[in-house]
Amino acid sequence: MTDTLHTLRLEHRGEPGRAVAWVWMAKPAVHNAFDETLIAELTATLLALDADPAVRVIVLAGEGKSFSAGADLTWMQRQGAASVEENLADARRLAELFRTLSTLAKPTIARVHGAALGGGMGLAAACDICVASDRAVFATSEVKFGIIPSAISPYVIRAIGERQAYRYFQTAERITAARAREIGLVHEVTDSEGGLDPQIETIVEALLAGGPNAQAAATDLIRAVANKPVTDDVVDDTARRIATLRATPEAREGLSAFLDKRQAAWMVSAPAPNPTTGH
């Protein structure tokens, strides 16, 4: 896969079964701005990594001075001259990228430094976890170009809430890393860019201690119950989910490892695919 990538650099860290895939957007000259090639390559790469049982965690990062400055202006100009049908197809591919990132079974971490603007902010929001340096800046800057942050809106609103979105979607103000943490977009802010990787490694180690199938089920649980009233159907669904997982080999191994005061099998060997989830 790496031989065919033009806009990404793929790096694997860790031992087999504990592998962390670092996906680097590799267009530093244009601050890792999106175009049709990056969108297609990133979507395909994320799907391939999610299907790889040796990969436990995915980190999304950017080379150069920025995480991602959003859409490539030359690409936007080309789309401005395209037909409505071509624009719709292109917009759907972009929207599918964000949906793909936000629904991966593997835990995802955004490593944000420099600018994360427009679609770059969308990538940060679509990841499960976001770590940013104190020099990072975010913005939904689309209105400055006469457009709207449409494709990223489900993920940004999920992260910062409707009330904050009313402000930032309309003002396109720059959001500091500290402010981004206050409004829920960022989980951790490091004192410098040099602190990014150590902070990510701390989170990665915590993730590797969890059962991979349980983590996939946990993210699926969040998507199923978030922002929903606690109805009888929701209560029954949550009961069924835990009852099903309790009977799995991974759950039995996790409990046995805890009682035996040893590492669980998934911490020392490659995880086997779960036949009930496909992961």
What does this structure look like?
The longest helix has 19 residues, at 84-102. The protein starts with 7 loop residues before the first strand and ends in a 19-residue tail after the last helix. Strands 1-2-3-4-6-9 form a six-stranded mixed beta sheet, with helices on both faces. The chain has a three-stranded mixed beta sheet with strand order 5-7-8. By secondary structure, it is an alpha/beta fold. Helix 1 runs parallel beside helix 3. The protein is built from ten helices and nine strands. It is globular and about 60 Å long. Helices cover 47% and strands 15% of the residues. Helix 1 (36-51) links the parallel strand 2 and strand 3.
Which terms summarize this structure?
279 residues
Compact description:
The protein has 279 residues and is of the alpha/beta class.
Strand tally is 9
Query: What is the share of helical residues?
Result: 40-55%
Taking all residues together, what is the mean pLDDT?
91
Strand content: 15-25%
Radius of gyration: 19 Å
What is the chain-wise order of helices and strands? EEHEHHEEHEEHEHEHHHH
Major sheet description: 6 strands, mixed
User: What form results from the Cα inertia axes?
Assistant: globular
**How do the strands line up in the largest sheet?**
1-2-3-4-6-9
Task: State the end-to-end CA separation.
Answer: 20 Å
Low-confidence stretches at least 5 residues in length (pLDDT < 50)?
Answer: 270-279
Q: What structural category arises from helix and sheet content?
A: alpha/beta
Number of helical stretches of at least 4 residues: 10
